[in-house]
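hey can u run this one w/ guanosine-5'-diphosphate bound, need the C-alpha cells asap thx
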Amino acid sequence: MERFGFVGLPNAGKSSLYNALAGGGALAAPYAFATTDPNVGVARVLDTRLDALAEMSGSANVVPATVQFTDIGGLVEGAHKGEGLGNMFLAGIREVDAIVFVLRAFDDADVPGDPDPLEQLRVLEIELSLADLESAEKHLDKQRKAARGDASLGATVTALEHAGAALAEGTPVYRSDLTADEREALLPFFLLTNKPVLALVNIGEGQLDESAALVAPVGEALDGAEVLPMCVQLEAEAALLPADERQEMLEGLGLGRGALVSFVQAAYTLMGLRTFFTTGEKESRAWTFRAGATAPECAGVIHTDFERGFIRAETIHVDELLAIGSLVAARAEGKVRSEGKDYQPVDGDVMEFRFNV
Ligand SMILES: Nc1nc2c(ncn2[C@@H]2O[C@H](COP(=O)(O)OP(=O)(O)O)[C@@H](O)[C@H]2O)c(=O)[nH]1
Ligand SMILES: [Mg+2]
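ok here u go:
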C-alpha cells in the first residue's frame, strides 16, 4: 500500500496531524494488515462519489480506498550529517512514496520554534538536498566506472550529473529542471527529493482568514506543488468528536467537511493513485490503481484470476452513471461501454469485469 510521510521541524505539528488522522473516526481505517511500525497509520480516502454509488445500488457494504501515512519525526539542521536522529530520519523518508512537508505558521509563545513557513521549508530542503547530493556523488562514481564497459549506462550517468549540479545549488530534484526521463533514470538510487511533494501549512485558529496569503508564497517556492492550509489543532479536536458533532463544529468554523478529508485526497492523487469503482447490492467499493494502468491490471487489483482471464470491462464513468440513476437504465441506453485489454481506465470509472479462467 502506498505511503506518505510527514517531514518537518520540531513542533511544526506533525504528531498532532498524525493523531488527527489516526484518531478521526471518519478517516482512520481499521488495520487490514499487520505492521510492526507504531508510527504507520491507515487513512480512508473519503469519496462522496462512492457514497452516492452505494445509495444508488442499495449496497449492504461500502468499502473506501485507503492509504498509509507515517510520522517520520523531527528533522533538525545538520540531519544530513547524522545530527539528532539524522540517519534514522533519512531512512524513514526513503520508505515513503510521497513527502508531506509540515510547515508551521501558527504562533504560540508556549510552543518553541519559529512560525515562518518559508524559512522552515528552506531548512528542510537544504537538509534533504545535501543528503541527496552525497548519495548522487557516490553513485555517480560507481556508474561512471561501470559505464566504461557498458554504454547503456550513459543516460544514467548524465541524469546523476544533472541531479548533482542542481543539488549542489540547493535545488531539490522535485523542483529542478531534470526531465521526466532523467527522474525515472534516478529511481534506482532512491533519492529523497526525487519523490512527489505536498506541503501543509499549519495555521493557528486566528489565521483562518489569512490562509490563502500564508499558503501562496510556499506554493511559489515549491514551484507550483500543491500546498494546503490546515489548522491541525482544530482538525485534531474535531476528529475526536462523534460524526454529527464533528460536522457541526467544522461547518460552524466555515471549514466544510474539514481540511483532513481534502488533504488525504490530495496525497492520494499526488502519489499517482486513482480510483475505480465496483457497485452492486452486496457492496460498493473504491479500488486503487496507478495512473496509466490498463483494464486487465485494474482487474488484477481485485483478483489475479480477473487479470489472467480478462475478456473485457463493462465501463461507465461514475458521473454519467449517477446522472442516469441505475446500471440497468445505463445499459438500456447503451451507455455502458465494452472496453478491451488496451483500455486505460480513468479516475472514477465504474467497472464490471468479464473474465474466463
Ligand atoms: N496553538 C497551536 N498549537 C499547535 C497547533 N498544532 C500543534 N500545536 C502544538 O504544538 C506542539 C507541537 O506539536 P506536535 O504535533 O507535537 O509537533 P511535531 O514536533 O511536529 O510532532 C504541541 O504542543 C501542539 O499542541 C496549532 O495549530 N495551534
Ligand atoms: Mg512529533
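Residues 292-355 form a domain with the Ubiquitin-like (UB roll) fold (CATH 3.10.20.30). anyway lmk if its weird
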